[in-house]
Design brief:
By secondary structure, the protein is mostly helical. Helix content is 86%, strand content 0%. It has a domain of 192 residues. Helix 2 runs antiparallel to helix 9, helix 12 packs across helix 13 and helix 12 packs across helix 17. It is built from 18 helices and no strands.
Length: 507
């Protein structure tokens, strides 16, 4: 049964994603514990951004393109995979060397203080080296999904993430901030080795000129698609570059750190709980597209409806419990009460963009299937211009211009893609439902934001146990309403699935 199989795959992916994102979150907590919101953390974030842009430019869309092309061709050509991945690695290495050669200009661009230039150089070298295993990971991981090697993916990820976290914990007191990027490098190298063994790729193909000639046309075609898709990721990273550059140059030390912690926390539900669903639904969308247009449209419409409702619940929960969540995870070590207060409003504002951000992720994948790479790039480009424009115009008036710009960008992107798909794809999506969800989202978010803002001092005056007791009845009421709603909405669907679980071809 298709639905049961997908549920099992989603469950495995969910477990893997929970552990991986949990591991990444733990790394952030270690950083917050030792350094809090500080100039050092700001420096690390600056050191990471340009190498991340290089990775996104050449490998940002590699995995999705490989899945789409290989699925459509109904085969996995090892020769092609070896040549393609190796080519991306070589290009990334070349640009990494160029970046290090131009490093003095980067220091001037970000106005790095003289007493921090040596540390900045050390961080930059480690982050650049990390891009090499990251290329293998970003290219090969989606192929593990496509081949349905979910157990292998989970096992290798668990081992890699544990090694990375242990590395940081053991060496942070000795190496300081340097231990953090080294821990990430250790994780990515371990993961890349596992993925290479998992695909059993034979790199001897690189030695034969005839194989390069044989694969030339397909390589060029996929590289073209990859580059088109990577441009979108690049533009997104340019928005982040603008955000970090403006924060580092115009705002007080530690503000960039606060924004980063709040972004990590606001994205956690999507990354941990829903990215697994997005992955399996994307692969299922590709499969259904090959089977027929009606089946594909029906499935896509249903997923859009369910995701919007689930995301809305996650968003309301995250906003309502924001003070408790921040204190629970961050308020310890160097991350004191002042850091919590500084991070709080950033987190609240960014959380408003959770639902449109999730819908953008889903709708973007739908655009991939429709091969609308150029259109998607134009939308992302306009979004980035809007974000940077708002940040640059209002950065000196308010530090909150950055999270506000990010949220506006997410709303714009999701609405623009939705409108395009609706206009060019007959029978797709429910417009009144979409508008109703977004209006209700803005209204509820505004109310919760106002309540939390005026009650924050009172809430933060309590210890963690008192806060837990205070929030418990709110949580129980929230959980009860949510369960009743989803039971009523999807009762018939679940009954149908489980009554027919032994029958074939159940959707």
């Amino acid at each position: 049964m298709a639905i049961i199989k997908q549920l099992k795959n989603s469950g495995l992916l969910l477990f893997g994603q929970l552990f991986i994102k949990g591991s990444s979150f733990i790394k952030q907590l270690i950083l917050a514990f030792y350094l809090g919101v500080s100039a050092q953390v700001d420096l690390l974030l600056i050191a990471q951004i340009i190498p991340s842009i290089l990775l996104s430019l050449f490998a940002g869309g590699a995995g999705e393109i490989l899945v789409t092309t290989q699925k459509k061709n109904k085969r996995y050509d090892d020769k092609f995979l070896v040549l393609f991945i190796s080519l991306i690695v070589l290009i990334t290495c070349a640009f990494g060397i160029i970046y290090l050669a131009l490093h003095p200009l980067v220091i001037q661009l970000f106005s790095v203080p003289k007493d921090q230039t040596v540390l900045f150089w050390q961080l930059s070298i480690i982050v650049i080296i990390n891009q090499i295993p990251s290329v293998f990971v970003s290219g090969l991981q989606p192929l593990l999904y496509a081949k349905e090697k979910y157990k292998y993916y989970v096992a290798s990820s668990l081992f890699s993430e544990i090694i990375g976290v242990c590395f940081i914990l053991i060496l942070f007191k000795t190496l300081g901030l340097i231990a953090f990027p080294l821990g990430i490098l250790t994780t990515q190298c371990t993961k890349a080795i596992f993925y290479l063994f998992g695909h059993k790729l034979k790199f001897k193909y690189l030695l034969y000129k005839a194989i390069w000639i044989e694969q030339k046309n397909e390589l060029l075609a996929v590289l073209n698609k990859t580059f088109s898709l990577s441009l979108q990721t690049l533009v997104n990273h340019l928005s982040v570059l603008g955000e970090r550059l403006l924060s580092f140059r115009f705002l007080s030390p530690g503000v960039l750190s606060s924004i980063n912690y709040s972004k990590t926390l606001s994205q956690l539900p999507k990354m941990a709980m829903l990215s697994s669903v997005l992955t399996t639904t994307y692969i299922e969308q590709v499969d259904r597209k090959t089977k027929g247009e009606n089946e594909y449209l029906s499935y896509t419409n249903r997923i859009e409806k369910v995701l919007s409702e689930v995301a809305f619940v996650f968003q309301v929960f995250s906003m309502a419990f924001a003070p408790f969540i921040l204190v629970l995870f961050f308020k310890r070590g160097a991350f004191g009460a002042h850091a919590v207060e500084q991070t709080f409003l950033f987190y609240q504002i960014l959380t408003i963009g959770f639902l449109p951000g999730l819908m953008t992720s889903f709708l973007s994948r739908t655009m991939y299937i429709e091969s609308q790479y150029k259109t998607l790039f134009k939308i992302i480009l306009i979004k980035s211009i809007i974000e940077i424009g708002i940040m640059y115009s209002f950065i000196e008036l308010s530090q909150y211009s950055i999270p506000i710009a990010i949220v506006i960008g997410k709303f714009f992107t999701s609405i623009a893609i939705f409108i395009y798909l609706k206009n060019h794809k007959a029978g797709i999506f429910n417009v009144p439902k979409f508008i109703k969800t977004y209006l209700f989202l803005v209204l509820s978010s505004g109310i919760i934001l106002a309540i939390n803002h005026y009650s924050l001092d009172f809430i933060l005056s309590k210890d963690l146990l008192a806060m837990a007791i205070m929030y418990l009845p709110i949580f129980l009421v929230f959980a009860f309403i949510t369960i009743v709603y989803f039971k009523r909405q999807y009762k018939n669907d679940f009954v149908y699935i489980f009554k027919n679980r032994k029958k074939k071809h159940v959707d």
